[in-house]
Amino acid sequence: MRFTVWFLSGVALLGAAEWPQFRGAESNPISADTRLPDKWSATENVEWSTAVPGRGWSSPIVSKGRIFLTTVVTDGESKKPQTGTEYSNQYVAELQKQGLDEKEIMARVMARDFELPHEVNLRYFLYCLDLATGAVRWKREFHSGHPPGGRHRKNSFTSETPVTDGSAIYVYTGNVGLHAFDFDGKQLWRTPVEANPIYLEFGTAASPVLHGDRIFIVSDNQERQYAAAFDKRTGKQVWRANRDIGETTGSRMRSAWTTPYIWKNKVRTELVTVGPKTAISYDLEGKELWRLNGVAASPIPSPFATGGLLYLNGGRGKPLFAIRPGATGDITLGEGARSNVSIAWTERRSGVYLPTPVAYEGALYVLGETGIFSRIDAATGKLTYRARLDDNAGSFTVSPWAYNGRIFCLNEDGRTFVVAAGEEFQLLRTNDLDDFSMASPAIAGDRLLVRTESTLYSFRTRSAPK
């Protein structure tokens, strides 16, 4: 670990330094802390940096001056991550030109681009770091052995972000199980979950969410799709709702990677989930409230709410939906319709494949995986502009975040594009870390925590020494 110490002009209150889950407490990563930095590099505005062994695309979470994150260490070599969203398509096209049959093509693709369970032996860890110094307080191994399923090298074996209530940390890894630890690293309980096949061994990614005394997960896979609630005190399953969505024959897509959302609105509190081709909302006992067709076959962006509306990204080539509280039944739009009694508006061409949009200062900022950046009025759905961040912007998986009148877009090469908030597109600067990046950052008071493939950084604005 290396770190730099300097004097600061102010001290963040502990309450402002809580980041309890993926994309923050409100699932919309913004902050009003004016001390947060908008410039950084591997040497600039670095409070500390800590090497994190292994690999994981899970985000850091923060509570009571501690950072928690997961990683997986592989015995021997692990296949290097892939940038972009080509996946294996180009490779398949090359093999087809060689005249290979389908069976041989699939064998070569799996050998090059996937890690299968029999190929790797893994050790899964939960790390606890000190927020002020980056020092590792403790680490706990919570699973080991061959994984229950494989992964594409675009994914990791720990892409799910833990969640905390300030008393315990709840770690969910798809097809492995749920684990609970106290803040001193003592394991409180462990609940295995069944291992179900994911489409083409792409791996899992949907994080858990927490409300009251319950932990909620969604598992959209090829065999037994379900949403479930568990008692956070014991790990026992409280309810399970089977989901029959997506394609139903052969090996067609029934898997998804979307984190669910607890929507506390003026009518009720509900669990919003997005699966293949269909979004479904449940009450907190697992009863279906409403459903919406028209979602992509392989959804990834997460739903979230602000300003009284729920925003649901339908995926690449699909609409962005704004949904009113109190919906019931099938709220799917009719042919050619852009709104109905439950849907306030849709913007038909604004769905994206990977990053989740961010809502900031009355607008939605939508980032596509190839660097196309859009601003949409959050109340009306009117498109303000659509622009390319840069001719060489690269590829994006991380969701954008916002503060101090700026939107931040981190690409997979470690470059962050800083865009001015407002009705005109203006790229202010880029910040370069020169390290592969797939994890969404955390904002903890006046600290920005960014996880790259090898390192966790704490960025904090320097001030003059006293």
In short:
The chain has 466 residues and is mainly beta. The chain has helices spanning 89-97, 102-113, and strands at 2-3, 30-31, 46-51, 61-63, 66-74, 114-115, 122-130, 136-145, 151-152, 163-164, 168-173, 177-182, 187-192, 209-211, 214-219, 226-231, 237-242, 261-264, 269-275, 278-282, 288-293, 304-306, 309-313, 320-323, 329-330, 343-347, 358-360, 363-367, 372-377, 383-388, 401-403, 406-410, 415-420, 427-432, 442-444, 447-451, 455-459.
Shape: globular
Structural class: mainly beta
- Look at the structure and give the mean pLDDT: 93
Radius of gyration: 21 Å
Tell me the distance between the termini.
26 Å
Strands in their spatial order, largest beta sheet: 1-3-37-36-35
Helix content: under 10%
Number of E-state strands:
37
The number of helices is 2
Chart the SSEs and their pairings.
Elements: E1 2-3, E2 30-31, E3 46-51, E4 61-63, E5 66-74, H1 89-97, H2 102-113, E6 114-115, E7 122-130, E8 136-145, E9 151-152, E10 163-164, E11 168-173, E12 177-182, E13 187-192, E14 209-211, E15 214-219, E16 226-231, E17 237-242, E18 261-264, E19 269-275, E20 278-282, E21 288-293, E22 304-306, E23 309-313, E24 320-323, E25 329-330, E26 343-347, E27 358-360, E28 363-367, E29 372-377, E30 383-388, E31 401-403, E32 406-410, E33 415-420, E34 427-432, E35 442-444, E36 447-451, E37 455-459
Parallel strand pairs: 2-31, 21-25
Antiparallel strand pairs: 1-3, 3-37, 4-5, 5-7, 6-9, 7-8, 10-11, 11-12, 12-13, 14-15, 15-16, 16-17, 18-19, 19-20, 20-21, 22-23, 23-24, 24-26, 27-28, 28-29, 29-30, 31-32, 32-33, 33-34, 35-36, 36-37
